[in-house]
Task: inverse folding
């Protein structure tokens, strides 16, 4: 029995099945090839650390690479959607199949139907990966890397973290790392309206109770202002405090938010808004990007079909070159606008959606010119 990638669908013609089948097959084959290449290079880079730290083979395969693959798929999804469309559409154009289809009474708009259906399948899968699958898989792969890698670039923590827990009141955490059971230094500082230090409590070798979330230390010191530039010092036998700080906030926000599902991200955002945190822009950019990136699949597909459906001098090579240049332009524009939005110089939604807006305009232009 011959396997069919596209089942029988009412109203779906043989031409539609042909185009959709070609589209998805080339897309899947390209992604699989890219996954194999990236996994080989990644393993060759990390194999020494894996061997030195005794990483089990099953853990490398199932705990790390099985969780790393969804990230690769989503990262290169738009690129291979574009390349797949251009590759086989350009081949059809070179063999005058596109001309024959249009001459047979099929409109260019009707020709787009199987392409858009394929884009819908890919975009839906990308959306599910972005919102739910990748955050969970990133968490698992990061845990594995933290255990078996000397230096894990995915887990980054600033040597000094400053959190504003109330107006003129700050928590300063020094040397935090979740791999360590003890925090070297914690400082609780209170200022007046003139930004002058009024009181400070410091504690060394602080531990966090995972159940009660209480921060504890055997001893601490309390400094109280008694005059200008003069403080009284009071040694305390025990330090115990429950600050309004989520332990996750002590790490860098950018890698942290990528490990949260959309529900966790929304809840985390509400918490940061309540605290008046400056990280809200980073969270909003991440939220919008998770939706805008899958949507780009439709835009890049329209551009790809419109550009490659013409028979031009230079053939498929010219189509592929132009397509790859446009795709990388989209990716670079997205990276730039995201960073600008995270810095607060642009609205988060605009930073995430601006590349789609720009390329949607390009898609409309080339789509209207294509039938001519």
Result:
């Amino acid at each position: 029995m011959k396997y069919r990638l596209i089942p029988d669908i009412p109203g779906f013609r043989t031409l539609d099945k042909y185009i959709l089948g070609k589209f998805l097959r080339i897309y899947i084959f390209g992604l699989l090839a890219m996954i194999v290449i990236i996994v080989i290079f990644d393993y060759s880079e990390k194999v020494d650390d894996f061997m030195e730290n005794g990483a089990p083979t099953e853990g490398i395969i199932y705990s790390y690479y099985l969780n790393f693959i969804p990230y690769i798929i989503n990262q290169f999804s738009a690129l291979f959607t574009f390349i797949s469309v251009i590759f086989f559409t350009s081949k059809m154009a070179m063999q005058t199949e596109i001309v024959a289809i249009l001459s047979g009474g099929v409109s260019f708009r009707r020709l787009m139907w199987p392409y858009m259906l394929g884009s819908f399948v890919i975009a839906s899968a990308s959306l599910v990966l972005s919102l739910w699958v990748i955050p969970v898989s990133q968490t698992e792969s990061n845990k594995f890397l933290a255990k078996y890698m000397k230096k894990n670039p995915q887990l980054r923590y600033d040597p000094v973290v400053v959190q504003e827990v109330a107006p003129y009141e700050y928590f300063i955490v020094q040397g935090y790392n979740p791999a360590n059971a003890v925090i070297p230094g914690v400082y609780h500082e209170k200022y007046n309206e003139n930004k002058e230090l009024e009181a400070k409590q410091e504690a060394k070798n602080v531990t966090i109770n995972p159940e009660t979330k209480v921060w504890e230390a055997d001893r601490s010191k309390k400094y109280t202002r008694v005059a200008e530039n003069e403080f009284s010092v009071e040694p305390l036998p025990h330090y115990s405090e429950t600050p309004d700080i989520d332990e996750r906030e002590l790490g860098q926000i950018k890698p942290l938010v990528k490990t949260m599902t959309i529900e966790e991200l929304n809840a985390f955002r509400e918490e940061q808004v309540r605290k008046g945190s400056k990280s809200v822009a980073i969270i909003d950019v991440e939220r919008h990007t998770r939706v805008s990136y899958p949507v780009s699949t439709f835009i890049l597909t329209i551009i790809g079909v419109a550009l490659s459906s013409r028979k031009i001098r230079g053939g498929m090579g010219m189509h592929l070159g132009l397509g790859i240049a446009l795709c990388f332009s989209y990716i670079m524009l997205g990276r730039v606008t995201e960073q600008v939005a995270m810095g607060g110089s642009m609205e988060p939604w605009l930073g995430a959606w601006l590349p789609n807006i720009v390329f949607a305009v390009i898609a409309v232009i080339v789509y209207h010119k294509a039938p001519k």
About this structure: The mean pLDDT is 89. The first strand starts at residue 160 and ends at 166.
